[in-house]
Design brief:
Blueprint: H1 3-28, E1 35-41, H2 47-61, E2 67-75, E3 78-85, H3 91-105, E4 114-120
Antiparallel strand pairs: 1-3, 1-4, 2-3
Length: 131
């Protein structure tokens, strides 16, 4: 066997090995999680009052299945609820479920409080939920 034949076989083997490992890696790459943001705007309210508005929203949202994590934060005049779903949750169904839960929880909230719901994913799709 000549040196050139051996070299070509090694290069071909490395190329095939790279393709195989690349395909395996692609299949094992985790999918992106569906993430929703609920933003509450309540002008002139302190952070404690905003948190009182966020609590019933968070309790209602937490009833949705396949939630990985929920985090809530408030400040003067505004608050956020970030809902991160399990990997197998579809972003479209997550958006619909969150909006449905917001409708249920919206009944006792002050009229001045405005609620917005956004999809947070690579496509940067946004949905707005108005009271």
């Amino acid at each position: 066997m000549s040196i050139s034949t051996t070299g070509i076989k090694k290069v071909a083997f490395i190329a095939v090995a790279n393709m195989v490992f690349g395909l395996v890696s692609c299949k094992q790459t985790p999918k992106e999680r569906a993430v929703m943001q609920v933003y509450v705007s309540y002008a002139k309210a302190d952070s404690t009052t905003v948190m009182k508005i966020l609590d019933p929203l968070q309790k209602e949202i937490s009833k949705i299945s396949n939630i990985h994590k929920i985090s809530t934060s408030s400040q003067k005049g505004a608050g956020n609820i970030i809902v991160e779903f399990n990997i197998d949750k579809n972003i479209d169904s997550a958006a619909i479920e969150v909006q449905n839960r917001l409708t249920v929880a919206n009944t006792g909230l002050p009229k001045e409080a405005k609620i917005y719901c956004f999809r947070m994913n690579n496509e940067h799709k946004k949905n707005k939920y108005n009271q």
